[in-house]
Amino acid sequence: MTNRSKHNNILSEVVQNTNGFISSVPKSKRKIFGQFFTTASTARFMASLFEIDFSKTHLELLDAGAGTGVLSAAMLDHIFNNGFKGTVHLTCYETDDEVFSILEKNLILAKQIYGIEYTLLKENYITTQFFGVNSLMTEDGDRYDYIIGNPPYLKISKDAPEAKAIPTVCHGAPNLYFLFWTMGIYNLKPEHELVYIIPRSWTSGAYFKKFRSYMFSQCVITDVHLFESRDKVFSGESVLQETIIVKVKKTTNKPECVNITTSSTSDFRDLKQFRASYDTVIPKNQFVYLVTDTEEAKVLERVNKLPSTLPGMNMKMQTGIIVDFRTREVLRDKMEEGAFPLLYSQHIKNGRVTWPLGKEGEVIKTDRTSFLQRNSDFLLVKRFTAKEEKRRLQCGIYLKQRYKQFEYISTQNKVNFVKCDSPCITYGLYVLLNSTLYDTYYRILNGSTQVNSTEVNQMPIPEREVIEAMGRELMHQDLTEANCNKIIDRWIN
Fold it and tell me: What are the entry keywords (predicted)?
């Protein structure tokens, strides 16, 4: 007998059961499987994003990688407490034996309270789907009305069964979360919705290009939620990646706007909302720009209309070539005959590259040409910054004239560099990347603390003449962000 009265709340009991499990299993063990359990408030918020079609008499729901069923419980509470009168069939996948028993207990509770039917599968969600390698574009898999999920965040090898199952979207060693997402899109009925909580890493870069291409061929993004503090999303967990909530609809009809919300924590009490034009969030390059206010939208508008890129000007940002702990035999602490400077991120100070610093291993002596770069003008950019730091793009100008005694130099792999063909260009690129405009642009594009050279190479920049003119102006000024901003405001409207 069911108890389908309004305002049931099975989520509370499911969370209680989940907390009991979490306290009994070491965090290190859960990390191996990419397990991070969703908080009750996050689960409720995710469920609230669905626009349920109450005219239906039956709903098919999917929670792949269901864990203990927290998201399923929130979804069922949302559906029935908002007046759904029909029947529900819920499919859950979970492979972890310990979690499976708790999930089963929670699904029995859901059946008792709401009268649902469920299928519980101890199977690999991705490898057990029935489709051919080239059939991700077919309608064979359209089975579910609504899909909710917190997929595993786990990098796997390119030869893993899951990667081989969906080669269409893979580039190198993939992360399980977007393979789950791909399969979810495949399994979603047309004009229906999927809500996932996932890392932000898929929004840009070459690594996820195939996935984005597939997703946007099938879906539109309607809602995105960003957390200002990543350590508050999963209670008590150490999640290093920035995590977001995304809702997609399986349709080719683009909405006018994407609803973007932010909150400082997972209790959503300080929820802020911004509606951004769909084409601003997802332009033709299929990167996803998560703007949160009018000012950020203006930044995108201002930069995206520029005509060129670094590779388009025969300059390309690259990552430094020396991994110091793997090449200790060629590193030196002091200069000696036949040796050359090795530049680290620590050498970037106040807008310039200052070498030497008396730092360990800042000299390289080798005959291997692959370890050396011909001495030229360079713009160096730190690859790694702390989340709390004011700027993501931190640059330093290196001019060969200051170090003309060296035929070669080298760069450590925690810096990115652009080889420039003149001091004017070097200073001009510094104006761009050291400006508030471009730092904001990059933060919108990439939420991580790592500066990705592939993404910088995709950023629009002015034509060469403008960059040179800006560089000439800066040569006679202090290398401050304020001065860069004044120059850029005169040249880029």
Answer: Methyltransferase, Transferase
- Other CB atoms within 10 A of residue 486 CB: 15
Measured in degrees and rounded to the nearest 5, phi and psi for residue 62 equal: -135, 135
Tokens of 28: 């290190």
Spatial neighbors of 316 by CB under 8 A, at least 6 apart, are 310, 418, 419, 453, 457
Taking the C-alpha atoms of residue 4 and residue 489, their distance in angstroms, rounded to an integer, is: 62
Instruction: Using alpha carbons, select from 219, 223, 249 the residue that is nearest to residue 46.
Output: 223
CB-based contact 260:244 (threshold 8 Å): no
Do 95 and 103 meet the contact criterion of CB atoms below 8 Å apart? no
SS3 call for 27: helix
Looking at the structure, tell me whether residues 257 and 405 fall in a common domain: no
Cα separation, 155 vs 149, whole angstroms: 18
Report d(CA 39, CA 250) in Å as an integer: 27
- 126 closest CA partner among 191, 177, 69, 71: 177
pTM of the entire structure? 0.87
CB hemisphere CA count around 432 (13 angstroms) = 30
- Is residue 27 within 8 A of residue 90, CB to CB? The reply is no
Structure tokens at 386: 């702390």
For the chain, how many structural domains are there in total? 2
- Specify whether the CB–CB gap between 40 and 15 falls below 8 A: yes
Domain with 461 in it: what CATH number? 3.90.220
Give per-10-residue mean pLDDT for the chain (493 aa): 68 88 63 62 97 96 95 97 96 92 95 96 89 51 90 92 91 92 95 96 90 96 87 45 91 96 90 95 93 95 95 97 95 96 97 97 96 98 90 97 97 98 98 98 90 94 98 97 98 93
Look up residue 264 and give its two tokens.
Answer: 């400082």
Helix (H) or strand (E) holding 458: helix 453-458
Domain hosting 439: range is 311-491
Task: Please report, for the domain that includes residue 182, its CATH number.
Answer: 3.40.50.150
